[in-house]
């Protein structure tokens, strides 16, 4: 009996074990199913919940979606599949005026690409008959809404933020990575701008621009402020955060205007300026050919203040000068204004090429560290005690060993079969150049044109290039061939 009882007990235990296992598996599958359902509901709620509306007293209702910091990507693999930044990811916020648009549109239309570039020019009031019908080659316009503020100065103070606010509402979050703020006389080089922004993670907070060339301007405002004339770019999360805190910031800094207000608000949010030397406020007067002929080794992104400076090409109007410069920009933006230096040692000459703009021929061997400093052909924004500029300059003198034979861009021809582009530079102003030293070299005074040959599409970020120069038989022409620098090549 004891044996039978033991067998019965074992049988019961075996059955209970099977039942327990069955129940455990059943419970496990039910738990998985319930957990899956809960996760699905949570995912649906999180990603399909209505946008929260934030209404500012100063602005129209502003729709905010989750920032990139609130929604994490599913995996690094998904992030790696994201396409690189292109022009469609930029949204331009151009602050303009009906008083100036008639003649300033000529600085915007050369770079604006209808149906490709996105954004608007914002006006303070509806355009009059003299501005209508609105040209198709111009950015579409939007009239800033009346903020119902009596103080006219305060209205001016917040116009930029009204414009940014309206742009944020109109921009599609999925397609917009950067908002680019500019004046209505800012000349952009779009391909270079896109390449510059491509280097940064648009899902993080970025404020990319440049300060002024003028020490006085920076000391009055800030050395760490991006100037709207040269233009600055804000990543999508930066604009989202800025607008969310803008009402408090305006109240905190009453009487502070546009660019300075942006800088202070962003600084208070822990977002500092990332500087780019290709962005130019041009707080200068007069002839800026010296600056453009010795541009920093950084792709040109913008120029500004064309109404204040002289036409950048001799014997041309301001508008003609801008259109002329854009001819080379359409061929190879990455190379425009990039300085290349080489030597014709038989004649003791130094040749400095600012691609697409000018060629300087010096009657002496001058090292690169000297030639990369701009000739001070321009005047300061405001006459103050030195230092005047945020960069080093060379003084203009009558010394023929220090002053160049200057030639300006004339024409461009692209050979797609050989992947070469040839630019021609010619003397545009009368005047002879006496020899530096009759016993040492031959005068460059008879050089009337220079032909520069380069490979198409300069590769940005790969350092400077070098060149070889030779005189074309006994003619008045020099030929310069741009090439990669040799290992440890010395430019002196």
Automatic annotation (TrEMBL):
Q: Which keywords has UniProt assigned to this entry?
A: Membrane, Transmembrane, Transmembrane helix
Q: Which Pfam families match?
A: DUF604
The residues that cross the membrane are: 28-47
Per its UniProt record, what Gene3D superfamilies does this chain match? 3.90.550.50
- Name the domain of life: Eukaryota
Protein name per UniProt: Uncharacterized protein LOC108815177
The gene for this chain is: LOC108815177
């Amino acid at each position: 009996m004891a044996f039978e009882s033991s067998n019965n007990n074992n049988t019961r235990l075996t059955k209970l074990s099977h039942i327990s296992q069955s129940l455990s598996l059943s419970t496990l599958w039910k738990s998985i199913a319930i957990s899956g359902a809960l996760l699905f509901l949570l995912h649906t709620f999180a990603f399909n919940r209505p946008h929260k509306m934030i209404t500012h007293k100063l602005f129209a209702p502003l729709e905010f979606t989750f920032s990139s910091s609130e929604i994490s990507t599913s995996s690094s693999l998904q992030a790696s599949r994201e396409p690189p930044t292109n022009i469609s990811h930029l949204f331009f916020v151009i602050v303009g005026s009906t008083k100036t648009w008639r003649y300033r549109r000529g600085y915007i239309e050369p770079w604006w690409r209808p149906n490709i570039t996105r954004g608007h020019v914002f006006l303070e009031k509806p355009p009059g008959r003299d501005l209508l019908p609105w040209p198709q080659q111009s950015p579409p316009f939007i009239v800033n809404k009346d903020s119902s503020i009596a103080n006219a100065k305060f209205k001016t103070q917040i116009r930029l933020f009204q414009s940014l606010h309206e742009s944020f509402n109109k921009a599609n979050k999925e397609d917009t990575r950067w908002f680019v703020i500019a004046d209505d006389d800012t000349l952009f080089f779009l391909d270079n701008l896109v390449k510059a922004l491509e280097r940064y993670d648009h899902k993080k907070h970025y404020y990319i621009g440049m300060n002024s060339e003028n020490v006085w301007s920076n000391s009055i405002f800030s050395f760490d402020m991006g100037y709207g004339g040269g233009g600055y770019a804000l990543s999508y999360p930066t604009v989202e955060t800025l607008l969310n805190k803008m009402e408090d910031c305006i109240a905190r800094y009453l009487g502070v205007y546009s660019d300075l207000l942006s800088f202070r608000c962003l600084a208070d949010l822990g977002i500092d300026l990332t500087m780019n030397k290709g962005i130019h406020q041009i707080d200068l007067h007069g002839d800026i050919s010296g600056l453009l002929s010795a541009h920093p080794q950084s792709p040109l992104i913008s120029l500004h203040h064309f109404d204040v400076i002289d036409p950048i090409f001799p014997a041309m109007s301001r508008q003609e000068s801008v259109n002329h410069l854009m001819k080379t920009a359409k061929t190879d933006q990455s190379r425009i204004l990039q300085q290349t230096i080489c030597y014709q040692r038989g004649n003791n000459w130094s040749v400095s090429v600012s691609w697409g703009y000018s060629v300087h021929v010096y009657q002496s061997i001058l090292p690169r560290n000297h030639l990369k400093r701009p000739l001070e052909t321009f005047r300061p924004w405001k006459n103050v005690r030195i230092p005047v500029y945020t960069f080093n300059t060379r003084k203009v003198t009558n010394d023929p060993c220090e002053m160049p034979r200057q030639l300006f861009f004339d024409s461009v021809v692209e050979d797609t079969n050989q992947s070469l582009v040839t630019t021609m530079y010619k003397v545009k102003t009368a005047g002879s150049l006496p020899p530096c030293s009759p016993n040492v070299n031959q005068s460059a005074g008879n050089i009337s044109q220079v032909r520069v040959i380069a490979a198409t599409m300069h590769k940005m970020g790969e350092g400077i290039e070098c060149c070889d120069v030779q005189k074309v038989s006994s003619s008045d022409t020099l030929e310069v061939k741009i090439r990669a620098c040799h290992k440890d090549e010395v430019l002196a």
